[in-house]
Every structure is written in structure tokens, then in C-alpha cells.
Amino acid sequence: MPLMDGQVIALIGVAGTIVAIVSAIVASHRSTSDKIQKGDDALHERINRVRDEYVRRVDLDGHMARIETNVKELREENREGTRDINRRLDQILTSVGVPKPPHGR
């Protein structure tokens, strides 16, 4: 039976080697899978952040047009208010008898 014992020992050695190789392959696969998953998670987080912070061009253009319109309206209202105040001040100064200063000062 000495031959049989040698074969069993060889079989155990081969089986151990195969188990070690398979274990190394599985560990390598898990490590690679974890690295890929971490990269995917970072990419998905970045995509979600961009999606949440992104402003569509059409929406931005609409808001900017509305702001520009409001600024123009405010500017015109301010000019009208200034003209009205100047007209009233001129009336008051005229009624009091203070000479009107020449325009341009």
C-alpha cells in the first residue's frame, strides 16, 4: 500500500493547490468587484449631484428674461418718479419765488 499512500498524498496536494488557486481567484474577483463598486458609487453620487444642481438652459433663460424685464420696469418707474419729484419741486420753488437754476447743473 505504499504506492497508494503516495497517490493519496499527491491527490491531497493537488486538491490543496486547486483549492488555493480557486481561493486566490475568488479573492481577486471580490477585490476587483469592490473597487468597481466604489468607483460606480462615486460616479453615481457625482451624477446625482450634477442633476440636483444643474439648471436647464431654457429655465435659466426664462428667469433671466424676467429679471431683465423687471429691471427695465423699475428703471422706468424710477425715472418717472424722479421727473414727478422734479416737477413738484419746480412748482414749489416757483410758488415761493425762488428762481429756477439753469438746466445742466
Secondary structural class: mainly alpha
C-alpha termini separation: 125 Å
Per DSSP, the total helix count is 2
Summarize the amount of helix as a percent range.
over 70%
What would you report as the Rg, rounded to the nearest angstrom? 43 Å
How is the biggest beta sheet arranged? none
Low-confidence stretches: none
Number of domains: 1
Query: Got a strand count?
Result: 0
* Oligomeric assembly: single chain
SSE sequence, one letter per element: HH
Any idea what the shape is?
rod-shaped
Residue share in β-strands: under 5%
- Mean pLDDT value: 90
Question: Could you describe the 3D structure shown?
Answer:
With 105 residues, the protein is mainly α. The chain has one domain (6-95). The chain is built from two helices and no strands. The longest helix is centred in the first third of the chain and has 52 residues, at 2-53. The relative contact order is 0.03. The model has no long low-confidence stretch (mean pLDDT 90).
